[in-house]
Structure to design on (384 residues):
């Protein structure tokens, strides 16, 4: 189905109408974890896994959504769109529709086909890819073009307000605005960004621990609450601190004793991670790969020990990678508690690195991991 021509035929045969087709990528975050909702910095790249959305208009007042991945079709009436989530994959496209309605749009009838190869529940933002692909498809039908950052914000709202996941802006932003062969340093306060070229001889090797990761509910949400509680303590003394983005390590030294031990550790991760992320972007831009790798290693330790968002499997994947030839830097990527590690690896060594890492991990953990050699890809777009 990678072939858009096949996808087009599939849509045509099912709905008897030619679709307009849009693609939105998943992402891998090089550094900057749980900093986005603290209005800090992140540095993700879009990757060459994506969701395709094919759309054609209907005249019967229905919205019919078909997922090729789930081989399931669901039908809704434009006059009675669901107002809340049903804990089903259709929550993501319906969430986008709900936000577009709240922006004043009237949603017409349409047929939507979806297919994606972003591994699900792996911390590679399959949800954001689905939201952004749907948003591009539906807005094209409406004849509306939103700038990428605005589209990303609408999709984040779909996830926050409809799906019920308290995620930040990173995933939707990079899916909508990624640039081929570049990582993107995003300031999550004002959504300004700079692109950092990833050298041609560097591969993004993504190793899936096969431990499922989820953002809805659970540990992601409780970590976010601990971060916000730490911020509230500092804001009690320095009201200008609205998010941990505004706080410093000195603040923790002064007022950390007023926080729970967990809040203190979570805040130390977020504050130091912001500094590391900006430094990592500068290192990448000046081509200092050994400094970038050092910062990624430090970020993993902080994520694992202070933020306690890692797991035995991810820690093992990172420490095995650290001993392999060609590694520049390795860390757990994404929301945490499973999912994938990102390994920056010298391109010439990438295939051997991937094979060795998979073998060592399987021998030690007893699970065969999926290891993908990826490249930074462009953001969401219409296919011709
Ligand atoms: C998930 C969320 C993002 C971000 C990361 C952690 O991917 O969707 O907004 O918070 O976790 O960095």
């Amino acid at each position: 189905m990678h072939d858009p021509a096949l996808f087009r035929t599939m849509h045509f045969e099912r709905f008897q109408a030619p679709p307009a087709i849009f693609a939105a990528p998943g992402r891998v975050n090089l550094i900057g974890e749980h900093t986005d909702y603290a209005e800090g910095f992140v540095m993700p790249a879009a990757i060459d896994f994506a969701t395709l959305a094919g759309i054609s208009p209907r005249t019967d007042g229905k919205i019919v959504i078909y997922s090729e991945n789930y081989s399931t079709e669901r039908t809704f009436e434009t006059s009675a769109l669901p107002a809340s989530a049903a804990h089903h994959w259709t929550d993501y496209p319906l969430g986008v529709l709900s936000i577009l309605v709240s922006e004043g749009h009237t949603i017409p009838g349409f047929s939507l086909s979806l297919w994606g190869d972003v591994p699900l529940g792996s911390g590679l933002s399959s949800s954001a890819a689905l939201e952004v692909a749907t948003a591009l498809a539906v807005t094209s039908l409406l004849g509306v073009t939103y700038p990428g950052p605005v589209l990303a914000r609408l999709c984040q709202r779909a996830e926050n307000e409809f799906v019920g996941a308290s995620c930040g802006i990173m995933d939707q932003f990079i899916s909508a605005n990624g640039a081929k062969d570049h990582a993107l340093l995003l300031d999550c306060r004002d959504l300004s960004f700079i692109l950092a070229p990833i050298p041609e001889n560097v591969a993004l090797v993504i190793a899936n621990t096969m431990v499922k990761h989820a953002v809805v509910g659970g540990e992601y949400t409780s970590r976010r609450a601990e971060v916000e509680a730490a911020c509230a303590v500092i804001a009690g003394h320095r009201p200008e601190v609205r998010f941990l983005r505004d706080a410093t390590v000195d603040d923790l030294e002064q007022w950390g004793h007023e926080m729970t031990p967990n809040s203190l550790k979570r805040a130390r991760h977020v504050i130091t991670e912001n500094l590391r992320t900006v430094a990592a972007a500068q290192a990448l831009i000046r081509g200092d790969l050994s400094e970038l790798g050092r910062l990624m290693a430090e970020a993993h330790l902080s994520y694992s020990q202070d933020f306690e968002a890692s797991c035995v499997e991810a820690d093992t994947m990172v420490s095995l990678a650290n001993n392999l030839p060609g590694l520049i830097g390795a860390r757990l990527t994404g929301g945490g508690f499973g999912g994938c590690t990102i390994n920056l690896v010298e391109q010439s060594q990438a295939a051997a690195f991937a094979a060795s890492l998979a073998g060592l991990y399987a021998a030690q953990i007893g699970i065969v991991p999926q290891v993908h050699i990826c490249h930074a890809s462009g953001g969401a777009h219409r296919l011709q």
Q: What stands out?
A: The pocket of alpha-D-galactopyranose is lined by residues 33-34, 36-37, 167-168, 170-171, 215, 334-335 (CB under 6 Å).
